[in-house]
From TrEMBL:
<dbReference type="InterPro" id="IPR009305">
    <property type="entry name" value="Mpo1-like"/>
</dbReference>
<keyword id="KW-0472">Membrane</keyword>
<keyword id="KW-0812">Transmembrane</keyword>
<feature type="transmembrane region" description="Helical">
    <location>
        <begin position="29"/>
        <end position="46"/>
    </location>
</feature>
<protein>
    <submittedName>
        <fullName>DUF962 domain-containing protein</fullName>
    </submittedName>
</protein>
<dbReference type="Pfam" id="PF06127">
    <property type="entry name" value="Mpo1-like"/>
</dbReference>
<keyword id="KW-1133">Transmembrane helix</keyword>
<feature type="transmembrane region" description="Helical">
    <location>
        <begin position="52"/>
        <end position="71"/>
    </location>
</feature>
C-alpha cells in the first residue's frame, strides 16, 4: 500500500523515514550508496570533471533500492517524498556515523 501521508516538516517526516529503514542490511546499503555519492562528488571536484556526476543516481539509488526491494521489502520513500527522502538519507548517514542509528 502506498503511503499518502503528508508531512509538514522534515522533523515530522524523519521518524517515518527511520521506520522505513528498520532492516540493518537496508541501512548498510544506504550507507554504502551515500558514501559513494560523497566520494564521487569529491572526485569530480578534485579532478575537475563533471562527467563523474552522471553515475550519482546509480550509486545513490542503486544501493538504496536493492536494500528496500530485497531486504526491507517496501517501496522507497523517494517515490512519495523525494526531497525529504534525499535529506533523510543524509541525516540518517550522519546519525549512523554518530552512533545514533545502528549499522
Amino acid at each position: 500500500m502506498e503511503n499518502t501521508r503528508r508531512f509538514n516538516t522534515f522533523a515530522e517526516f524523519y521518524p517515518y523515514y527511520l521506520s522505513e529503514h528498520s532492516n540493518s542490511t537496508c541501512r548498510r546499503l544506504h550507507f554504502i550508496g551515500t558514501s559513494l555519492v560523497i566520494l564521487i562528488v569529491a572526485l569530480a571536484l578534485i579532478v575537475g570533471n563533471g562527467w563523474w556526476l552522471i553515475v550519482l543516481p546509480i550509486a545513490g539509488y542503486g544501493f538504496a533500492w536493492v536494500g528496500h526491494f530485497f531486504f526491507e521489502k517496501n517501496r522507497p520513500a523517494t517515490f512519495q517524498h523525494p526531497f525529504y527522502s534525499l535529506l533523510g538519507d543524509f541525516v540518517m548517514y550522519r546519525d549512523m556515523l554518530r552512533g545514533k542509528v545502528a549499522f
